[in-house]
Amino acid sequence: MENKIKWETEIKAALSRAQEEKKLILLDFYNPN
Amino acid sequence: MGAVTYPNERVVEFIEKNMVPIQVLFDSQPLSTNFNIKWTPTVITLDEKGKEHHRTIGFLSPEEFIPSLMLGVAKCHFDLEKFNEAISGMEKILKNYPKSDAAPEAVYLRGVALYKNTHSAEPLKEAYKKLQAEYPSSEWARRASPYRLL
């Protein structure tokens, strides 16, 4: 498995995927600096 | 998190299998305001309707992050009154990550979920005993202390 998380960047897309795949959402707020 | 925890193979595998991951900047609006973000990293578990069930602030190693995510999943089941799923999730934490910071809360909530399912006080008393025996310095041992009287 590739060691990379496939992040969504839009909450709308994440919610849509979560409903479709019957999964919960991991929402990560980060600071790049 | 980005340098150590997120590249970890077991973390990637857990997230891929169980969750939809979304990453946004700390000041991304309206999410930052809606979730009252004041520090990073902040990681929140949401249900499919966008409701929050679990939150952590600060760095977590892979060994702590996975049980924390598992706790988030179990707490979501608990909040939605899916107590059998919640109990199963808590037990997986206790079996696979008994030394993690998530474990004492899992003991406590397992006891509460069992109580909700059976309306017997015994699981609460058992949770108190287990917390006293295995996690005596945890805040959850203190929160369970009234159950010694049951």
Notes on the structure:
The complex is a heterodimer of chains A (33) and B (150). Chain A is α+β, with helices and mostly antiparallel strands and 33 residues long. Chain A starts with 10 loop residues before the first helix and ends with a strand. Helices cover 33% and strands 21% of the residues of chain A. Chain A is globular. The mean pLDDT of chain A is 92. Chain B is an alpha+beta fold and 150 residues long. Chain B has a single domain (9-149), classed as Serine Threonine Protein Phosphatase 5, Tetratricopeptide repeat (Alpha Horseshoe), CATH 1.25.40. Chain B is 53% helix and 12% strand. A two-stranded antiparallel sheet of chain B has the order 2-3. In chain B, strand 2 (42-46) and strand 3 (52-57) form a beta hairpin. The longest helix of chain B is centred in the middle third of the chain and has 18 residues, at 62-79. The model of chain B has no long low-confidence stretch (mean pLDDT 97). The chains are: A alpha+beta (33), B alpha+beta (150). The interface between A and B is medium-sized, with 29 and 41 residues. Strand 1 (24-30) of chain A pairs antiparallel with strand 2 (42-46) of chain B.
Compose a concise summary of this entry:
The complex is a heterodimer of chains A (33) and B (150). Chain A has 33 residues and is an alpha+beta fold. Helices cover 33% and strands 21% of the residues of chain A.
Tell me the Rg of chain B in angstroms.
Answer: 16 Å
Rg of chain A over CA atoms, rounded to whole Å, is 11 Å
**How many domains in all of chain B?**
1
Bulk shape of chain A: globular
Write the layout of secondary structure elements.
The complex is a heterodimer of chains A (33) and B (150).
Chain A: H1 11-21, E1 24-30
Chain B: H1 9-18, E1 19-25, H2 31-34, E2 42-46, E3 52-57, H3 62-79, H4 83-96, H5 103-118, H6 122-134, H7 139-143
Helix pairs in contact in B: 3-4, 3-5, 4-5, 5-6
